[in-house]
Design goal:
The complex is a heterodimer of chains A (about 650) and B (about 325).
Chain A (H helix, E strand, L loop, with lengths): L1 E5 L19 E3 L19 H5 L5 E4 L7 E4 L7 E5 L2 E2 L20 E8 L13 E7 L9 E10 L4 E11 L3 E12 L15 E15 L2 E15 L7 E18 L2 E17 L9 E3 L1 E18 L5 E22 L6 E23 L4 E16 L2 H8 L8 E17 L2 E12 L3 H5 L3 E3 L4 E4 L7 E14 L2 E20 L12 E23 L4 E13 L13 E10 L2 E10 L17 E14 L2 E10 L21 E9 L1
Parallel strand pairs in A: 1-2, 5-8, 24-27
Antiparallel strand pairs in A: 1-7, 2-7, 3-4, 5-6, 7-8, 9-10, 9-33, 10-11, 11-12, 12-13, 13-14, 14-15, 15-17, 16-18, 17-18, 18-19, 19-20, 20-21, 21-22, 22-25, 23-24, 25-26, 26-27, 27-28, 28-29, 29-30, 30-31, 31-32, 32-33
Chain B lengths: L2 H12 L3 H10 L28 H11 L3 E2 L5 E3 L3 E7 L4 E2 L1 E11 L9 E12 L4 E3 L8 E2 L8 E7 L7 E11 L2 E4 L3 E3 L1 E2 L8 E6 L2 E7 L8 E11 L15 E8 L12 E5 L5 E7 L4 E10 L4 E4 L11 E5 L1
Parallel strand pairs in B: 4-13
Antiparallel strand pairs in B: 1-3, 2-3, 3-5, 5-9, 6-7, 6-10, 8-9, 10-11, 10-12, 14-15, 15-16, 16-19, 17-18, 17-20, 18-19, 20-21, 20-22
Classes of the chains: A mainly beta (about 650), B mainly beta (about 325).
């Protein structure tokens, strides 16, 4: 199952690999298509996180108002793959304060596509829950010779300001996209008007994507993104971030054969993440906790179409990838007067990973299609920091400083269209290696359950069988859809209390060590409905439910309770207005065992309107709205430590295209 | 070993010895000269084949070791105008708690290190001025070679129970036996510095009338991870001016390392200290990070009775502890 959010206007056929698949779900970040449901109502000024929230299977873990962590099929970062245009990138914060989606800006992107479950994009590895690929915005060749986009937004709650400008130049031999974005927010007010301290942030982003056509069939493309967030508050945590900086670069070469394309991309990215507790009062022990992540790699993607005419057509993609990532983090604690205490929390782990992926989209006939995908990957990990290695060896005397893992995935999906309905069923199996935190993390404090977490180098790979099905049915003006999937895990990795060990962090309850549970289950169900009431008025609704169980049939943490969303849309010419009601039921199935607390039910009402018009070939769009109209004070199950969401928020966003 | 052979060996060491290289560079204008023509030069030492003394390569190893420690000039002794005894410590000074002290003896005529000599006794004395009392402190029973690469260096230790201060000052003398010449060095005043804040490496306890001292060996060699912890248990003598030797009765010392600045955080799988055949006590201490650690102690006798420590302070840990900041 694929889902996409489109973020950019122009369809760039010649820069998109023909890996287009049926059942695509994308979030558009910029689009002409005003009716496109899959884009944030806030338009271009929306943050990446808000765009991600439009994807049906995505939830977001919120630790503040910045850098939300995407959750797909109720699985977090460990079980997802996130790539930027196929490039691997890994977060640098041991406390997951910087999901890699925070190092790009909406304006950098064309779309965000999500492959649900084990059927990952070719570069994805370890994607049990799903794979997100952030597709970069490329105007391509022979498009409008010159486009300039300026947008500005303001949100009254928290005084959020968004300013962005980008330009695109296109010719037959070269193109260039470039832009600059700035966001800045103060503390926001929760429902009821209380100020939530440490919810501010500030961010700048500069990017350039360029292409050069060397010949009719040879294209050179390059990307540069520099992104820096400063003074980012994390009200759910004990620390803030003084700097989170990403540098992302790539060069790719594409050769077009007749009926095939071969793209080879080399990339490098570096993330620096610096936590900061100096602005917090009553800090018992001041700590410095920097983290660094370097990744360099390449992939080579061959796409082609085979067969057709009379027999089944195969759209085939083969991908080879190779990357090397290094993660280092340490911590220095300064007790008043006494000697500083130092520990290495990620022992400079070097991961060399290489994999081969194949996908085949088979169009059997007009009504039936089949998608097959598989990947085999091998990786080697080395602990380059002696001090970190010796520290962890205290807990695992038999550990060595080098490990390797082999992982793989295979998935199949069959689609059948009959009459007014479409049915798809699929299944797959896949495995993932433990993450660096799970295998080698050292006393990483988790404020969610107040335990220090110790990585376990002896973990087995986690694996899962997935079964999924989707049924869409439409009659007259009604449309109805059902979606369900279930993941049956083996060796599910989660932290379990080890009461032999003594907590490090002052105030922590104890130490948990990552372990393999023999089995676990996560299942997701959803029902969608739509009704085009009149030409101008449409209704849509969605209800979803999820279930997570560990090996003792106890609930897993961070699993969504019953959730719903109702939307009434009015659309006339260039104007549209919406009323949205969304909410969650009370979280009855919360995971007390893993330190989760019960989250109460909530409902909020959002209003939004958009109007677009043109003057002298310039397009303007105005988007405005009110979120949480009734100023409810609430927090969702995925709000870290139940920090309250924004109260009533009025926003106005303007976009101006030349 | 004939001369040619030793010259060949000398040549071999050229590859390693910066000192030797220095000498070689000075004595020839081309460092690619035939190996056979080159010689080790160790400042102040003439290799003359004296059988009491080191060969050139042995002498070079000793010389190299001595570069890593510092001489304590006041403890040098000239014996019968034929031999010198030199004493060294890691810093050229002493501090409270366990200190290693190294000795070499040389022949005056060639400056070379004497292979076999003895320092049978180290005799530190504290004179407490106000009370006009004297006492000694825990010491090793003489000195011993400790590294097969430089057997001519002998090591002993002194664990100072107190620092030099207005209250009192230390003197040190030692007995020697060098190639038949025996005697005792002059008592020399030495300065014993206080350890910095966060370091307490010697503790005492009483069993009946006996006073015992727990000397922790070189904790600054520890690092994050698994470390061998070594200590000595010494017993106070009567009279107290006799240096304190190792206690003859065996104990078992349980350890509980804690970080007082970190909510008394501890580490798993520590192994208490038990007596080894050489009289030292050894165990394992695991350190999860650097910083200030207290090694809380419970001392048991051979029957398993707690004889010291093991009581609970207000923070719940034994009041008998070493403190180490790494």
């Amino acid at each position: 199952m694929l889902e996409t959010v489109l973020l950019a206007t122009v369809l760039m056929i010649d820069t998109e690999a023909p890996d287009r698949v049926q059942n695509l779900d994308e979030v558009l970040i910029v689009s002409d298509e005003r009716r496109g449901r899959n884009r944030s109502v806030k338009g271009q000024a929306a943050s990446i996180d808000e765009h991600l929230g439009e994807l049906r299977k995505v939830n977001l873990v919120r630790r503040g108002s910045y850098a939300w962590e995407p959750v797909v099929n109720n699985m977090q970062t460990e079980r997802l793959s996130t790539t930027i245009d196929g490039m691997k990138i890994f977060y640098a914060c041991t406390d997951k304060m910087d999901p890699v989606t925070s190092y790009v800006e909406s304006g950098n992107l064309q779309s965000i596509s999500l492959n649900s479950g084990l059927d990952g994009n070719p570069q994805a590895t370890g994607n049990i829950g799903g794979s997100l690929d952030l597709k970069l915005r490329k105007v391509g060749f022979d498009s409008d010779p010159r486009q300039i986009n300026v947008s500005a937004g303001h949100e009254w709650n928290g005084h959020l300001q968004v300013y962005g400008a980008d330009a695109a130049f296109s010719g037959s031999r070269a193109y260039l996209n470039t832009g600059l974005f700035y966001r800045d927010a103060d503390n926001y007010r929760t429902g009821g008007g209380e100020v939530l301290n440490y919810s501010q942030f500030s961010k700048v982003n500069v990017f350039a994507n360029a292409g050069l056509r060397l010949s009719d069939s040879d294209i050179l493309e390059s990307t540069l993104i520099f992104d820096r967030a400063t003074d980012v508050g994390y009200p759910a945590l004990n620390m803030d971030v003084s700097k989170a900086q990403g540098f992302i670069s790539s060069v790719s070469y594409r050769h077009l054969f007749s009926g095939a394309s071969l793209e080879t991309k080399a990339y490098y990215n570096h993330i620096i993440h610096i936590m900061d507790d100096t602005t917090r009062p009553d800090v018992e022990i001041h700590m410095d906790m920097p983290g660094d992540s370097w990744t360099t790699g390449l992939y080579s993607l061959l796409t082609t179409s085979l067969g057709g005419e009379t027999g089944a057509q195969h759209d085939v993609a083969a991908n080879y990838d190779l990357y090397y990532n290094r993660l280092f983090a340490d911590m220095t604690m300064y007790p008043g007067g006494a000697a500083p205490m130092y520990m290495v929390t990620w022992p400079d782990v070097g991961t060399l990973n290489t994999g081969l992926a194949l996908t085949d989209n088979v169009s059997i006939d007009d009504r039936q299609s089949l998608r097959l995908s598989g990947k085999l990957a091998w990786q080697q990990q080395r602990l380059n920091n002696e001090e970190g290695y010796h520290g962890q060896k205290v807990f695992f005397p038999l550990m060595t400083d080098s490990y390797y893992q082999t992982t793989g995935r295979i998935a199949a999906n069959y689609q059948l269209s009959i009459f007014n309905s479409q049915l798809s069923i699929g299944g797959g199996w896949g495995s993932r290696a433990p993450t660096v935190t799970e295998a080698y993390g050292y006393y990483l404090n988790n404020t969610f359950d107040q335990y220090d977490y110790m990585g376990n180098p002896h973990l087995k790979n986690e694996s899962a069988f997935e079964l999924n099905s989707n049924f869409q049915f439409s009659i007259l003006n009604f449309q109805l859809g059902f979606d369900a999937n279930v993941f049956l895990f083996r060796d599910y990795i989660i932290g379990r209390l080890d009461d032999r060990l003594s907590a490090m962090t002052v105030g922590a309850e104890g130490v948990k060590v990552y372990r393999n549970l023999d089995h676990a289950t996560i299942a997701n169900f959803s029902v969608d409905a739509g009704w085009q009431i009149t030409d101008r008025i449409a209704w849509s609704g969605n209800v979803s439910y999820a279930l997570g169980r560990d090996d003792e049939s106890d609930p897993l943490p961070l699993i969504s309770p019953l959730a719903w969303r109702n939307e009434l849309l009015y659309n006339y010419r260039n104007f549209e207005a919406r009323v949205e009601v969304k909410g969650n039921a009370v979280q009855t199935d919360y995971s007390a065992k893993y330190g989760e607390t019960k989250t109460q039910a909530w409902n909020i009402i959002n209003l939004s309107a958009a109007y677009q018009f043109s003057i002298l070939n310039s397009h303007f769009s105005i988007r405005g709205g009110v979120e949480n109209l009734l100023d409810r004070k609430y927090s969702s199950y995925s709000d870290w430590n139940n920090i309250p969401q924004k109260g009533r928020n009025v926003y106005l966003n303007l976009t101006f295209e030349l | 070993m004939d001369l040619k052979q030793s010259i060949m060996n000398i040549g071999k060491y050229l590859k390693f010895g910066a000192v030797a290289l220095f000498g070689a560079v000075l004595s020839s204008c081309n460092s690619n000269d035939d190996l056979g023509k080159q010689e080790i030069e160790i400042p102040g030492i003439t290799i003359d084949g004296d059988i009491d003394c080191c060969s050139a390569e042995e002498a070079l190893q000793v010389y190299k070791f001595l570069q890593t420690v510092k001489i304590i000039p006041e403890l040098s002794t000239v014996i019968d105008d034929k031999y010198n005894v030199f004493a060294y410590s890691k810093t050229g000074k002493f501090h409270g708690g366990y200190n290693e002290i190294y000795f070499v003896a040389t022949k005056k005529k060639n400056g070379n290190y004497i292979k076999n000599f003895e320092i049978p006794a180290l005799k530190p004395i504290m004179l407490m001025v106000k009370m006009n009392m004297k006492h000694s402190t825990p010491v090793s029973a003489g000195v011993e070679s400790f590294n097969k690469n430089y057997l001519a260096v002998k090591r002993g230790w002194i664990s100072f129970v107190m620092n030099t201060s207005d209250a009192g000052s230390w003197t040190l003398s030692y007995d020697y036996s060098v190639l038949g010449s025996e005697g005792t060095s002059a008592e020399q005043e030495i300065i014993v510095d206080a350890l910095p804040e966060g370091q307490q490496w010697i503790k005492s306890f009483k069993v009946g009338d006996g006073t015992y001292y727990l000397s922790l060996v070189n904790p600054l060699d520890w690092s994050t991870g698994k470390n061998t912890i070594t200590a000595y248990v010494s017993k106070k003598n009567t009279p107290a001016t006799t240096p304190y030797g190792l206690a003859s009765e065996p104990f078992v010392i349980e350890i509980d390392p804690r970080m007082p600045d970190m909510g008394n955080h501890t580490s798993p799988d520590n192994v208490g200290l038990s007596r080894q055949s050489d009289g030292s006590y050894q165990g394992t201490v695991n350190l999860t990070m650097t910083g200030r650690w207290r090694i809380h102690l419970t001392v048991k006798d051979a029957q398993g009775n707690v004889v010291a420590g093991g009581d609970d302070l207000s923070d719940g840990y034994s009041s008998l502890y070493w403190e180490v900041t790494i």
